[in-house]
Amino acid sequence: MPAKNYASTRYSELTEINEGNVKNLQVAFTFSTGVNKGQEAAPLVIAGTMYIVAPFPNVVYALDLTKPGAPMKWKFEPNPEPAAQGVACCDVVNRGATFADGRIFFNTLDGHTIALDANTGQPIWNSHIGNINIGETITMAPLVVKGKVLVGNSGGEMGVRGWVKALDAGDGHVVWTAYGTGPDKDVLIGPDFKPHYDMDKGKDLGVTTWPPEAWKIGGGNMWGWISYDPDLNLIFHGTGNPGPWNPDLRPGDNKWTSGIFARDPDTGAAKWFYQWSPHDLHDYDGINEQVLLDMNWQGKPRKVLIRPERNGYLYILDRTTGEVLSAKPYGPVNSSKGVDLNSGRLIENPDKKTGTGKVVRDICPTASGLKDWQPSAFSPKTGLLYIPHNNLCMDEEGVEVNYIAGTPYVGMNVRMIPGPGGNRGAFTAWDIAAEKPAWTLKENFPVWSGAVVTAGDVVFYGTMEGWFKAVSAKTGELLWQFKTSSGIIGQPITYRGPDGHQYVAILSGVGGWAGAIVSGDLDPRDATAALGFVNAMKDLKDATTAGGTLYVFRLP
Prior knowledge:
This is Methanol/ethanol family PQQ-dependent dehydrogenase. This protein has about 550 residues and is mainly beta. It is built from five helices and 38 strands. The two termini are about 30 Å apart.
């Protein structure tokens, strides 16, 4: 699975490549996906085969690692609806496949989940679960838990109502659907639901915390990451922003958006919920990865959930109850003033509150968050969480907007700018026990790639200029870098090849929301293009070009 394991640590126990020899890495082979759009997927390696999923049209490739140059074993072309490209909010990305029981499971932009025979590439089933006519797409990597394929939808910028579905891994039929808004029966809230904080308690809050009927087009989509604790038998998944962005148009807490659920994977029944950003003011989707750790917290053993959230706080939750144990900013934050650990509530900064016809300047972090979807990695050796993230602020102005199915439903003019210091990105090693950074590296552009860390004490990540970097897990010292053909927004992995040696792989190809100016060939003079991101990325076209290439490295 893209996260390496159910705890989402993205930690590899391989040690052949280490701090001392990583400088000798060289290219083992490359492969073109044939699509010059944002390459966000993690490659998967199962036995002697590597699987990669391209952005739209979502072709799946199987490469034979047992042969020189890793020739193509098979490819599968799902032929998704071309119209899906027009309703994808932020590039036509795909975040990868997952493997279970001899099958490869992946999602297509136009709303299909497909199971393939991992050996032959032949389709076993194809379930159509999304509707592009209302602006619904699927970009996430599925997760397989106890014979169920878990999938969520995208479309919060189109007024799409969010959901997570569990599909039977055997035949693809929908076992349960849990919505992100609406009455308790739709959200799968029943007698076992026990949230920790009073703000999340009450009947049908997914209706009553919205204006009449607004929950039906209210967002709360689940396009990010899911983790699973087999001991507690709980899955953990976030929910996206409420729609529209303009908060004046949806008074109330807007449950159950911008929060996190713990659910029973067998039935989908919600066990607890916590809302990161009640009545979200700034598009702070709550879909980031959650790293599950068992650790001593203030002298007591705790099952914790670590979450570098879009609103700028590094949360530590007790994952059995949803109680917030710690919430510290991991970069510049002025949109709020902290988290009240008694009520669990985010403390708003009234100076940065947006609304209709009101221009508010220099809100940090931006709508893309201090960190967006790009996943962090945790090393049990160092006790550090390695966080690729952004350093951006924004000007916002709320505007009136009406809902029309399949069209943007945002209601906000946004213009993003570099954050304090001028560097637009950072890579931070966060000391979880000490609740503070161990070290931080500054990057010119947002660090929109994922991270992987190894027992050899090496961390890998990519930059939007196209540098693939290896740094010391202990100090952050740059140990090696390689310039790829395009900006990197993918998820690096490391694996042991059929020859017994350790390899490192990354997809290069700029795009996504941050790189839309290149992959979508947008005009840098349009400050509000890509929901305001272009204004902060005007020079990206001078730094890199579109691409779509897999790079795999090994020691000589």
